[in-house]
Design goal:
72% of the residues lie in helices and 0% in strands. With 262 residues, it is mainly α. The chain has one domain. Helix 1 (7-20) runs antiparallel to helix 10 (217-248) and helix 4 crosses helix 9 (182-212). The two termini are 15 Å apart.
């Protein structure tokens, strides 16, 4: 089957998989700070786990309200990855200066900037960000590259995550298509965001653990946020390359070839 597939498309699919299945944010942050991320976990406040889900949901909700809906719908326009990295570096620097306690304030800002970058990448891959399904696909990126607390070893791959979110996406698209008022569509959007936040919160915890390591400070916070942004830009690039290839061929064929790539 792969031999009949256009070579350029196969090359793009291989590139997308290399982005999506690379080591997660914890490994990248460990390499950055030179300390196992587990040491940072021990420095987090005792009530951290109780708060992290709320922080993740709040960040995603605020970002979804502000980030995509103000962007122009220009499919194919080049993405501005560097400018978005600069934005999260600044917010991370502020968060790093004030320490771990500032994360609840800093994260919604940096998540909004990241979501704009994700939408920018989606647009560069030919997506129409005015469409509800595409907006949800942008939010879906925050679930990629990190396991949910309910995952087993078989449920953390790219297509497994999409399958886990598929029902919530379908319900949200169908419901929002029949409603004109945003508040009427809110319950299904909230359910979808909760699903995404389950995975996003794991990566937020890893980011917070890195920031909790002594001597990180403002400069370290800026660098950590840049790594965080770079991670989600990679996830977005891989995700929207896959979606573009699925539109050109079919989801079934692309998933089959994706699974065959080693």
């Amino acid at each position: 089957m792969a031999t009949e597939f256009p070579p350029n498309d196969l090359k793009e699919l291989q590139f997308a998989k290399s982005l999506l299945e690379n080591p997660g944010i914890a490994a990248k942050l460990t390499n950055l700070i030179g300390t196992p991320i587990e040491k940072g976990f021990g420095l987090l406040p005792k009530n951290w786990k109780a708060k992290i889900g709320t922080i993740a949901e709040t960040a995603l909700t605020q970002a979804s309200n502000a980030a995509i809906f103000t962007m122009k719908d220009l499919p194919g326009e080049s993405s501005s990855n560097f400018l978005h990295k600069l934005g999260v570096a600044v917010s991370g620097g502020v968060g790093g200066f004030f320490g771990i306690s500032a994360l609840a304030v800093e994260l919604p800002i940096s998540t909004t900037i990241m979501l704009r970058s994700i939408a920018d990448i989606a647009r560069s891959e030919g997506e129409s960000i005015s469409q509800t399904e595409v907006k949800l696909a942008c939010l879906e990126v925050f679930a990629l590259g990190g396991k949910s607390t309910s995952d087993d070893g078989t449920e953390s791959g790219y297509y497994a995550v999409r399958a886990a979110l598929a029902k919530s996406v379908k319900e949200a698209v169908e419901h929002m298509a029949t409603r004109t008022a945003a508040e009427e569509a809110a319950p299904v959007l909230v359910r979808f965001i909760v699903k995404v936040a389950e995975r996003f919160s794991i990566q937020i915890t890893e980011k917070a653990a890195a920031q909790a390591v002594p001597a990180i400070g403002a400069a370290g916070g800026a660098i950590i946020n840049t790594i965080f942004m770079d991670h989600f830009q990679d996830m977005a690039k891989g995700h929207f390359i896959i979606r573009r290839l699925e539109r050109k061929h079919s989801k079934e064929l692309i998933q089959q070839l994706y699974d065959e790539i080693t």
